[in-house]
Amino acid sequence: MTCKKCMEEDSYNDWTNYETWLVWTHLFNSKALTKVAARIINNSKCEKVNKIVDTLCNFVCSYVAFDVKDIKSGFRTDLLNATLDRVNWIEIINMIRLKKSN
């Protein structure tokens, strides 16, 4: 049901799309993940946004890959990459910065 809904509309719970909401939800339901994500963003103040996006995306990919057995198999890797490619990382970065300022 979720997949069908995602294909019918782009936005999800006031986020760009389901994938962005999903990453945000999982990142910020864990204090440890929240700290790492915030550290990536806060330690990269002078970095270009693309570098921050790459670093945050690589962290999430590594975290997810750790939980998935045999991540090198094509199907799992393709699903993970397709999902992470749809994430609006800028939106997540901006939300982390907003939460930090509050």
Total beta-strand segments: 0
Number of helices: 6
SSE arrangement, N to C: HHHHHH
Helix content, binned percent: over 70%
Apparent shape: globular
N- to C-terminal separation?
Answer: 35 Å
Question: How many strands, which pairing sense, and closed or not: the largest β-sheet?
Answer: none
Low-confidence region ranges: none
**What is the mean predicted local confidence, pLDDT?**
82
The proportion of strand residues reads under 5%
How many domains?
A: 1
Structural class: mainly alpha
Report the C-alpha radius of gyration, rounded. 14 Å
Annotation keywords:
102 residues, mainly alpha
Written description of the protein model:
The protein has one domain. The chain contains 6 helices and no strands. It has helices at residues 2-8, 18-27, 31-42, 49-67, 74-86, 89-101. The protein starts with a helix and ends with a helix.
Give a brief rundown of this model.
The chain contains six helices and no strands. It is mostly helical.
